[in-house]
Amino acid sequence: MNKKQYLTSLIILAVLSVAALVTNYFFQYADWLIILLGIMIGYTIVKQRINGAVQYFSTRFNMLLDYDLDIDEALKMAQEAFDNAPTATHRAMYQMYLAMAFYYKGDYDQAIRTFNSIELSRLNVVFHSLVFSFTGYAAWELHDTEAFDSALSRLKASADKVPAKYQDFVGSYVEVLEAIQNMDSSIDHYKEVIDKHFSNDDGYLAKKMNYLYRLSYYYKAIGDTEEMDKCLAFLIANGKNQHLALRAKEMFTGSVNVEDFVWDPTKKEEPVDNVEPEVIEEASQEESQDDSEKKE
Fold first, then answer.
1. Are 157 and 174 in contact (CB under 8 A)?
2. In whole angstroms, what is the distance from residue 127 CA to residue 153 CA?
3. What proportion of the chain, given as a percentage, has pLDDT over 90?
4. Cα(250)–Cα(153) distance, rounded to whole angstroms?
5. Of the residues 149, 155, 235, 279, which has the maximum number of CB atoms within 10 A of its CB?
6. What is the pLDDT of residues 40-60, one digit of tens each?
7. What is the mean pLDDT of the chain?
8. Separation CA 179–CA 193 (nearest Å)
9. Does 156 or 293 have the greater pLDDT score?
10. CA nearest 57: which of 14, 15, 16, 101?
């Protein structure tokens, strides 16, 4: 449901509601409680349609990025959703997805600008971790240490506000970004963290690519060019125009044959369920109130 459809639905609901209230005032054909209940049900249906559209978008968007690697379609989809968002809250949500699409496209500057322009008070605090984490990833690719450190600091600061069931979700991003930050001084710890968070095969190509890309930096640090090239060859052979494939082409030295690393999707395992936030969760009233007080 886009903005026009949402507004049209609200106008129709408002007109019907007023008509029901006025006619019932004169003719007393129904109990007032029934009239009010009908209005509430109508509003709930409209809201469920919006949330259902967001859920469908999220599923489709993630499949485009994680499995199909159709970055251009994901970017187009996110831009259209952002431009036609029905509410300010949904606009902020779609803006987060748009920034992520820019990141996967390799347009890191635009990704950071888009992340920084998101009205965070409109998002559930759990999604702040995604904003700060991907800002950090993009800054690292740009070798912008100041922006990276700032994103990591904001991520750590937001961790305490996250509900207990999402602590591990946010903590994983903190651990990975800290390992990247300290890669030069603790390369073995970096590999341990990368293995911990990315080595399990969940059946999605993007996850495997992310693991091999991060792993290639370990082999580069220890001077094992062939193993580094094996990781990069997989990205080049299978990554299409995804940003990691583009980075891999820049790092690849040619010590192995790229064609030997074409991925066979029939060997993938069943996806592993992870505890992640629901896409339709909105900022709580308490969070919105806190943000309003801070602005004052």
1. no
2. 16
3. 63
4. 30
5. 235
6. 766 566 566 666 677 889 999
7. 84
8. 7
9. 156
10. 101
- Residue 20: closest CA among 8, 45, 37, 6: 37
The single-letter code of the amino acid at 113 is R
CA atoms within 13 A on the CB side of 195: 7
CB within 8 Å of 17: residues ≥ 6 apart:
39, 42
Buried b (16+ CB within 10 A) or exposed e, 82-117: bebbbeebbbbbbbbbbbbbbbbbbbbebbbebbee
**Nearby residues of 74 by Cβ (< 8 Å), 6 or more positions away:** 61, 64, 65, 101, 104
Is 224:88 a contact under the CB 8 Å cutoff? no
Q: Which residue has the tokens 């806190």?
A: 290
Beta-ladder partners of 282: 123
Domain regions of the chain by residue span = 1-107
Which two three-digit tokens encode residue 72?
A: 């251009």
pLDDT digit string, tens, across residues 138-147: 999 999 999 9
DSSP state of 211: H
What are the backbone angles phi and psi of residue 23, rounded to the nearest 5°?
A: -65, -35
Tokens found for residue 269 = 């395992």
Closest CA to 214 of 200, 236, 199, 203: 199
Structure tokens, 30: 């129904």
d(CA 80, CA 94): 9
Centroid of chain to Cα 283: 16
Angle ∠(268,258,205) on CA atoms, nearest 5: 25
Distance CA(86)–CA(1), nearest Å, equals 7
**Residue in this structure with the two tokens 């007023």, named with its chain if needed:** 18
